[in-house]
Design a protein that fits this description.
Distance between the termini: 40 Å
Bound molecules: (3R)-3-hydroxy-L-norvaline
Shape: globular
Number of strands: 12
Strand order of the largest sheet: 3-2-1-4-5-6-10
Number of helices: 11
Order of helices and strands: EHEEHEHHEHEEHEEHEEHEHHH
Length: 312
Amino acid sequence: KILVIGACGQIGSELTSALRERYGNAQVIAGDRLSAGSHAGQAQPYVQLDVLDKAHLSQIVADENITQIYHLAAVLSATGEKEPQLAWQINMQGLLNVLDIAVSAGLEKVFWPSSIAVFGPDSPKKNCPQQAVTEPTTVYGISKCAGEYWCNYYHQKFGLDVRSLRFPGLISYLAAPGGGTTDYAVDIFHKAVETAEYECYLEADTPLPMMYMHDAIRATLELMDANAENIGVRTSYNLAGLSFTPAEIAQAIKKHIPGFRISYAPDFRQQIAESWPGSIDDSVARKDWGWKPKFDLEAMVEEMLKGMKITV
Ligand code: VAH
């Protein structure tokens, strides 16, 4: 059976649905810190859990005969700068608890998301390669960078089949993002539909690596399906979908909502965004396990607006 930790989050909620579609509801246990019944859209089986409560997590794995864990619970970049200690605790100790339990319970596989946030101001800005300077300047990025080395360590030392992807900013109309710097790319759609105007907290010409959630979920399932011997990267794979600036996505939305207006009022997240590459080279993922994104800017905008019931 599969346990999804962070099943109520932006990735977790859609990943849980995709896994249930493939393996059946009963085979996929959704886990999150919210109390059972209070979480939107998370059908049973559901278990309330805290990634810092290792004993309880271990008990769930034993009681539910878990053989795989998708560990998505984390504090993201913007919130992490407001709560650095919490972010470090949840992101780091949470991962270490999962890795330890996976080894002692002899789990088949573990998935853990890293992020392009592992890169920093000195990383290449364009088509940042798999092997590049990773000097993150956010607590979130530091925790993801350290987490990658821990995953690699558990694979080398204990043979744990833990696999990881450096997700770009993820865009979906189903699940709200929580506390990320890239969340503007989701908020802009809701504001465009609701009020036809949006005040963006990033500068107009700030490029960021992004991906439509459908591609991110497919990448996760394809990575987890790949033969272990094809997985040459045990820290975390660069993964690219598309890159755009706030001005570019606003222009693409205006094609469908002509009256849409964007304004700019950069806040502390501008500095975080500027520390990250504008685009990512994912040629190693393409070579090792055949990755290929499907959604470009136009296709993503159309899917998002259709999903929000706007005729495109
Ligand atoms: C964030 N959405 O903004 C996350 C992501 C690449 C960014 O890790 O923090």
